Amino acid sequence: MNKRRAAIAIAWLLFAADAVSAADLAQEAAQHGDIDVAVTLDAGEQSGSATAAVRIHADREVVWSLITSCTEALTLVPGLVSCTVLETAPDGSWQRIRHVIDYSWYAPKLTYEFRASYDEPARVSIERISGDLRILRGSWRLERDGDYTIARYAVHLAPGFWIPRWIVRAALRRDLPKMLRALRVRAESVQSRKPSMKDP
Predict the structure, then answer these.
(1) Tens-place pLDDT, residues 145-157
(2) How confident is the model at residue 171 (pLDDT cuts 50, 70, 90)?
(3) In the Cβ-directed half-sphere of 132, how many Cα atoms lie within 13 Å?
(4) CA–CA dist 166, 173 (Å, integer)
(5) The model's pTM
(6) How many separate domains does the chain show?
(7) Which residues pair with 135 in a beta bridge?
(8) How far, in Å, CA of 136 to CA of 111, rounded?
């Protein structure tokens, strides 16, 4: 099926992955117990890796349709103002995508391109092509859990410029759990409107 796809939330996690201490993570765990988030930084705290997971009461195919949609990305991802599919493989197995993040007046606008490779409906892999991120590698993994889907996100990245720690810390505290909850709410809303296989 020819779909308009785009892996969401990649550049946004630039803010989440760049400036979180162990104390910050402990506080986040207490405040957002339903969302698993972990961050590992390099020694200079200018690059890092982040993982996040959320349990969603929806089919894996429903969650897949949301994390691979530019339209949905614009409503779920804080600061994402443009999501454009630039190129699509003939068989739909990958796309080249441009994102523009305009997070706020106090943070620089980010524009970057990445390749999203698809293994439907289980995995999306992301690799930087060009733009304001020096390093960008990430993935979404969707796992079945009975009537639920576990959505796991992982990213390793480094900005191409310095960003104040307080900006990234504030973004993590406020927006990462918010984004994952928004994905869950949206997926469960879509799921609730699907006809049941048990219906006549």
Answers:
(1) 999 999 998 888 7
(2) low
(3) 18
(4) 11
(5) 0.77
(6) 1
(7) 158
(8) 13
